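Risk register update: the risk that structure generation would not scale has been downgraded. Supporting records follow, first protein first.
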Amino acid sequence: MKRRDFLTKGSVVTAVGLGAAAVLSGCDQGEKEKKEAKAPAVQKSKKTITIVSTWPRDFPGLGTSAQRLAARITELSQGALTTEYFAAGEKVGAFDVFDEVASGNSTAYIAADYYWVGKHPGFAYFTSVPFGMTMVEWNAWIKFNGGQQLWDEISGEFGLKALTCGGTGTQAGGWFNKEINSANDLKGLKMRIPGLGGKVMSKLGASTVSLPGGQIYENLVSGAIDATEWVGPYNDYFMKFYEAAKYYYTGGMHEPGGGLAFAFNASFWGSLTDWEKSVIEAAAMEENAAQFEECVANNGKYLAKLVNDHGVQIRSFGDDTWDSFGKAAAEVFEETRDHSALAKKIDTAFQKNLREIGGFMAKFETTFLNQRNRVLGLI
């Protein structure tokens, strides 16, 4: 090969190589720009969510669930949404979180919305009501049958936007310092029980109060109250109620689901991008399932601890007592419907869905459970 030909071909090769390099470089740059375009606008606008809660810090079940949710939002958003979490009493009192968030002083609260029946009785339906929906039924109503839209309507009247973020499942009937053999035994009883369940107990002669979790034990031990409901064996075990009351009643009429709220200041929620809202909703939905499943996983073992380690005596309300509960609950629902057009609208939708969803569950799920438990000797 002549030197001239070699140089000519070499020049072509070099040119091709440089051109290819330029093309590859251009591709790399293009890919880089595409990635930057897709990557969070996220990373460019960081926002802080200040969360106040009604639960004590590090409290197993309710408290740890709320803290887990706060951390998960930051994790899912890759730091675009940071959270400041304040347990009950760290920024405001447990029952002050509603006003704290509605006023815009904090961004969001985690609580049971039935604490706010004094503001509007319709809030009770977004936690639990007597003879109401189980956790599975309630989630179906909220997510697929219009419950969320009604929640938006009532929350919106107070400048809030609420999401579901957890649930306990059917709660215990409560802790009592004496046996309850009939509704007559409730007369004169001083009991901590919030929501519409408290109104039912009041109609049966009990003197009811609504106390935040952190104040229940001291009131029970001191004798300021004779009885309390809280959640179920897993959560109740760590409250040490067994030191003051030895009778623990199984499934109560007052709280068959125990759904929890993650409620935002409406103006703040409106300022979020669709992506930011989706991240928060995904984290809340994840925790909504996780908390319920955690309770189901732990209730049995902690019930055994209460009985075997602390001598707690397990009881169940009799049919006559349940019938009394039912009669009083019917009166409470009528009074709730009379409160306002919105309360009536919520109750009507709730009762309709309870009968449709619950009716199906009774024929299929409950039939199976009853027969499974009979055959396997679980009851």
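Supporting record for the second protein:
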Amino acid sequence: MVMKKYHLFAAVAAIASLAACSKSSVTAVETEDGAPVPVQFGVGSPMDVRVKSVGSVGGTEAQGNVWNGQELKIYGFERSVTDFTSPAFIDNVSAIAPVGEQKGVLSVSNAAAGNEPFYYESGFCYDFYGYFTDDATPAETEPVKTAEGISVPFTIDGSQDLMIAKADQQTDIDAAGAGDKVKEDRAYSAYAARRGVQPTLSFKHLLTRFTFKIVAGSASANDISVDKISLVSKTSGNIVVVGGERGLANIDETTAELFLQQRGENGSMEAFTPVKTEEWVEDRSNAVSVGESLMVIPAEDYLLTIYMSKDGSATEVKPTTTSLNITKVTDAPEGATAFEAGYSYEVTAVIYGLEEVEITAALEPWKDGGHATIDPDEEWAESL
């Protein structure tokens, strides 16, 4: 299976004039009629979003990859800044993504200037950053600023998507076909924007995603309900959103059992409703998707537990627990030793009544991947 990489990205377009990127001037750029020209922001391709907790942002190639009105955070710094405790050009400003589109305009306003747009300043080049943490970072949380960078804390429950982005000058110069007009060190600027070079924030997923299906492995499974599905994962740490070493940092080693949730009628995440398999068919072609997805901190393995019950029976059904690791993914990327950030793994649980559960995992992106099979019977036999 060909693996493809999908990014959320925000295009940041600035329209103004600039001769060169220096620190000689801080005056607002004006048009020919004397009116300042605003910095205009846009977004490009993302992944499935709703209200908080919004769940997975975007999807695989087959699922479609569009924005759905999520709230992004934007930073902008003048290029020569080496101490990120310095005042930012754009300081953790919210921007709302479009709905149902891969690309669209972001509305970003400067509250300090009466909600006017941001304006490029003459003689400056800028770097732009973005991040998305859903409600894994409470709204009132202040980012932590140091000279080396800016970070935000997070605590996930399995339903939040975490992403970061930084605009790449050369990529956008090439995309605009402006290589003969704009040098890399002159983007991003009003000068570059006038020549069609617009900053694009390509959002990268920082977590590993698991989706789940269930299918009957025998007729005895017809009266079995899957009540809950969980993975054990680390849950807390920091995301460096601005600076050289961007990404997950200071991960707390404490783990927790995270439960699969489902999307409610209003689009928000809610508790999982028990689901039954379709009636058993020999070729197992009628697997049922359950829940939304579990997004967890990348790791070599996870403890997977499936909780079940038998219709009309007061007898407690012992949960089925197994270790889920990359060796069980039959078509994982060559050389893979762990579950990776930005990859989505489809896990299929084959239900055999109350006797056993056979776990099959299929890797598909976000970036598309492969499949894995976990058979508790075979694992037990091999251990003897």
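Residues 1-20, 22-35, 46-52 have pLDDT under 50 and may be disordered. On this basis the risk owner (M.S.) recommends closing the item.
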